[in-house]
Specification:
- The chain is mainly β and about 270 residues long.
- It has two domains: about 90 residues, no CATH class; about 160 residues, Beta Barrel (Porin), CATH 2.40.160.
- About 15% of the residues lie in helices and about 55% in strands.
- A hairpin with a 2-residue loop joins strand 3 and strand 4.
- The two termini are about 20 Å apart.
């Protein structure tokens, strides 16, 4: 289909150039005939050639080949012998070139995959950090060209952070926005501001609470099949909450730097 489209566009470009220059194949043939057989002195001057006409259309180019190229002897392809020739005519397509492409980020959006990175958290004045792993799951719809809005979830868990904490968990669930600067390519940026849950396990007493947080991702989704992509991205998380500990409210904070690998249907 792309090769047929390029053929049609190339033929159309040559015709437009000839029309704009006021020269068409029929005019060239007529000029050669006039040179070979000059008209008599008392001949009446022929009518002026009609000016070329150009139109604009919102119909996309389907890429069909010229039927007369395959069957030049078809009755519909015969060149009229008599009668005035119609003016040169070409119609230019204004249809978006990215419409209905197989390899294009549009429509329904579904992403899932693992996450790994470093998670840090604070419990009051106590803080710790450690290697973390988790997963992400997101679903949404393309509301505009290259813009996806949906609902996503991400989980990071550090089972063995540094002292004084024994384990840390950050979970976020909320709306997100993904932007593809070029839907035919894979570069993307994603941002979310969502409710967050922070759970910290400390010797003697655990603390957990719900608050607010967000995430920012920058990555690339490479097509492996129509509508299917494999994505890699780097991102950061922030989360804020509070918890009750020893008859007092303490602040919980979490931050993370992570890498993700995901499978995308979009």
């Amino acid at each position: 289909m792309d090769r047929d489209r390029c053929t049609v566009l190339a033929r159309r470009a040559r015709f437009v150039a000839a029309a704009l220059a006021g020269v068409t194949p029929s005019l060239v043939v007529r000029a050669q005939r006039s040179e070979a057989n000059p008209p008599p002195d008392d001949a009446v001057a022929p009518d002026a050639e009609p000016a070329p006409r150009i139109c604009l259309s919102d119909v996309d180019i389907a890429g069909e080949q010229d039927p007369c190229h395959a069957e030049p002897e078809h009755p519909d392809c015969a060149i009229p012998v008599r009668g005035p020739e119609p003016p040169p005519h070409v119609c230019l397509s204004l249809a978006p070139p990215t419409r209905d492409r197989e390899y294009q980020h549009d429509g329904f959006y579904l992403r899932m995959g693992p996450i790994g990175g470093v998670l840090g958290a604070s419990l009051g004045r106590e803080s710790a950090s450690g290697a973390a792993y988790g997963a992400e799951l997101a679903a949404g719809m393309t509301l505009a060209t290259g813009v996806v809005v949906g609902l996503g979830s991400a989980l990071l868990h550090a089972p063995a952070p540094s002292q004084p904490l024994d384990a840390m968990t950050l979970w976020q669930l909320g709306p997100f926005v993904v932007v593809y600067p070029d839907p035919l390519r894979g570069w993307r940026a994603a941002v979310s501001i969502s409710p967050s849950v922070i759970a910290l396990h400390a010797p003697g007493e655990d603390a957990s609470g719900a608050g607010v947080g967000g995430a920012l991702w920058l990555g690339y989704d490479a097509f492996v099949a129509p509508d299917w992509s494999f994505g890699v991205a780097a991102g950061g998380f922030l989360g804020f909450a509070s918890a009750q500990r020893q008859d007092a409210r303490v602040a919980l904070r979490a931050r993370a730097l992570a890498l993700s690998a995901s499978v995308l249907w979009h």
